[in-house]
């Protein structure tokens, strides 16, 4: 498996389609994806779980164009179904090779694919990549307290609650906590066996 992931890492550098799971593939984000990202990020039902800000097509295209400049610290991939339908993105951000950690983020923007296992499958792929190819020791995330589905998925993946930022965000006329969760490599190895 590690040899297969190293080959995948080389393909990533060469912009080939990279990781394949049971339900999804992770591939390079393309300029053609920009319009879908704008649609999703401007949908209140989707973006309440992310930035909660609207985005323009011009800004999204600029972000995609500049993505290669940040390859050392940000590995972001499009999530596509096995039949090549683009449904979201996933990534490792703030990659710190010295301290062996990174921040994790995911969005399933196409609501037709919510609660069907696509996010879990994509997460399994990116966590394997982070721990086995990038040789990370810890992957962490932040999640809003009202994102109950995501919290359950993160717990099933082995993430542990490490703390919370009390009343950090204001959404729907109410203050909400932001949970900080983390996953160590040995915890992922245990959780990974249960996901098979």
Describe this structure in words.
The protein is an alpha+beta fold and 196 residues long. It has one domain (2-195): Gcn5-related N-acetyltransferase (GNAT) (Aminopeptidase, 3-Layer(aba) Sandwich). The chain is built from 7 helices and 8 strands, in the order αββαααβββαβαββα. The chain has helices spanning 2-13, 34-41, 44-47, 57-66, 118-133, 148-156, 185-195, and strands at 19-20, 24-27, 75-81, 86-96, 101-108, 138-144, 160-171, 174-184. It has an 8-stranded mixed beta sheet. The mean pLDDT is 89.
Which radius of gyration do the C-alpha atoms yield? 16 Å
Number of helices: 7
- SS elements, strand count: 8
Mean pLDDT across all amino acids: 89
Kindly state the percentage of residues in helix.
25-40%
Structural class: alpha+beta
CATH C-level category: Alpha Beta
Low-confidence segments, given as residue ranges, are none
Biggest sheet descriptor: 8 strands, mixed
Shape: globular
Order of secondary-structure elements: HEEHHHEEEHEHEEH
What strand order characterises the main sheet?
1-2-3-4-5-6-8-7
- Portion in strands: 25-35%
